[in-house]
Amino acid sequence: MKPDWDALMEKFAGSATALVADVDCTAAGKSLCEAQGIRGYPTIKYGDPSALEDYKGGRDLSALTKFAEENLKPMCSPANIDLCDDAKKAEINSFMSMSSADLDALIKEKEAMQEQAEADFKILVEGLQKTYQDAMTKKDATIDEIKASGLGMMKAVKATKAKNDEL
């Protein structure tokens, strides 16, 4: 992916409205990565610098370029409210009218909801993994029982009979 990412950075170098960059989360960029909640590498983020979103698309140059051309532009945000439709302007104004403490509490609540969704998903996946393991163990045991019941010998006898019938 690195060569494709480098090519994308080169393509957008000098853009007045889009930044394509990379950050080394193991060195000087560690605090930035921690602040953005980055846990795995490589991670691609996009959007308003104060509220970056996770990129979930393709990782080849074609997919990255298509996404960048369609999405890396000034977007509706508190800094670009003129780009917002009436509903988003109302939402931004509603948040702007809140006290910092109330906004912090609401952010904390929503982040807790996200964390709970992640935790619920992890539990579900662990349950699915256990179900899969149990089913695999049962299947293997059943196949072993079938083989032990003489299946191999049955096949050998059939082959011998077929060979004898040919003579």
UniProtKB/TrEMBL annotation:
Look up keyword Cell inner membrane and say if it applies.
Answer: no
Q: Thioredoxin domain location, by residue?
A: 1-69
Which keywords has UniProt assigned to this entry? Signal
Superkingdom: Eukaryota
Ranges annotated as spanning the membrane: none
One biological-process term from Gene Ontology? protein folding
Does the record's keyword annotation contain Signal?
A: yes
Family, per the entry? Belongs to the protein disulfide isomerase family.
Q: Could you identify this protein by its name?
A: Thioredoxin domain-containing protein
Q: Which organism is it from?
A: Ditylum brightwellii
